[in-house]
Amino acid sequence: MKKKKIIFLFLVLGLIASFILIYDGFFPTKNFASFKVGDRLLVWSITLILFILYTHTDSKPQLVPSVLSIEKDAGKEKDKSDVSFKDVAGLDEIKEELQETIDFINNFMKYRKMGAKIPKGILFYGPPGTGKTLLAKAVAGETNSTFLYASGSEFVEKYVGVGAKRVRTLFEKAKKEAPAIIFIDEIDAIGARRNSESNNEKDQTLNQLLVEMDGFNSNETVIVIGATNRLDLLDEALLRPGRFDRHIFVGNPNVKAREEILEVHTKNKPLDKSIDIKSIAKKTTGLSGAQLANIANEAAIIAVRKNKNIISSHEFDAAIERVLAGLEVKNPSILRKEKETVAIHEAGHALVSKLLATDIVQKISIVPRGQALGYVLKFPDEERYLLTKSELLNKITCLLAGRAAEELIFSEITTGAKDDLNKATDIAREMVCSYGMSSLGTMALDNNFMRYNSDVIRIEVKKITDERYKEAIQLIEENKELLQNIANVLLENETIDNDELDNIFENHRKSKLPCAINSN
Hints:
- This protein is an alpha/beta fold.
- It folds into four domains: 2-59; 77-249, P-loop containing nucleotide triphosphate hydrolases (Rossmann fold), CATH 3.40.50.300; 255-325, Helicase, Ruva Protein, domain 3 (Orthogonal Bundle); 336-508, CATH 1.20.58.760.
- It has 21 helices and nine strands.
- Helix 1 runs antiparallel to helix 2 (37-56) and helix 11 (255-266) packs across helix 12 (277-283).
- It is elongated.
- The termini are far apart.
- Residues 59-78 and 516-520 have low confidence and may be disordered.
- GO terms for molecular function: ATP binding; ATP hydrolysis activity; ATP-dependent peptidase activity; metalloendopeptidase activity; zinc ion binding.
- The chain crosses the membrane at residues 6-29.
- Zn(2+) binds at residues 345, 349, 420.
- It is a multi-pass membrane protein.
């Protein structure tokens, strides 16, 4: 802009000089008698050059940043997807549900003859890392459609009208490139529920999205796929049929799906013949597809770090610990007293988990990882979708057992139970507010009730946790010697696996048996 101003200034001077010389050509004066034809041509040439420079210098006024002057292409990642359903492990029921949409795009004429309309939108919702983006790419790959990716945050701007313009641009591109898949990741960034306190620009962007999804011509094979982790935040107008016709929950994989996902992520890796993918799948209950991919990658990295040519089960176990518990702290400066406290704490968790048979204890460790000085890795004996009230209460007891062990052995408690208390309180709160498993009766409590009756809820939650804490103390007191045995082995070896824990229990049981009396 400064450069153009300078050129403009010289151009004005050149134009003035040129007009004066032209005037002098028609009405000669003594003042310019010394100017020859060559001098006049030089002035006119310089003026012409300045005019050309001025017209070719970019001078778009930027009252706001370039976001308004230079159109941002919201669908810049425009390409044919090379992902198919063969690359998507697990999620069989979701793939089957999507086959109809895929067939609609590939064979739209047979549906049109029957008067059927293509679904306008598909909404994937569920926890992060479960494969929502991968599914959208697979739909585009199966239909050979143009894949237009956009993140919800790309449409959010503080300048009024910019977000709405980007939405229009994205849909215009999709119509030109049809058949096309528009994938909007984290759609809750622009599709959040509108209210009196919401941002005006955000509302305009959402309104434009609603209009575009409503305004599709039935002849255009364009499908919008949205993905979100928070379905509860989305505006009702966006969720209605005619906009997002299909709502598909993409949850964490079950044991069979985890096995398939691990097979996909390990097929190009040199695995030891002794590795059992099924057992690894059982150890990773509740993990998402992204976490499983991370475990397979971490196992390979650990094998390289150890200068090994193949990946064994030891690397996979280390990778699971790395993902679940965090990075191992090298050369930790922990006091002997603290180490003993951690050993008793983790032994308390393991002891009560074993006694109540809530989960299979995979490993106990007092090797610091991340912010934790110790941890117990557990996984359920079988895949569960429903939990009884007694099972939830047992889970709370196991979580509080570490703190109970500290109090019973040292007559003192530490800050080490912070995470356990949070988890135990969350379970108890769900029992009271969502599952109707308290003295408040068989009702689910909504937000209004919880806001104005927080004291009532707090009393119910405290009643549950206090009872479970007493139960944990009683169990540990009855098995105090066994607790010390587990803690002593932990202090000596720093880790205990499932088989070693079984041996400790078995040796303790044998030591308590009365001596056999020989007959005769």
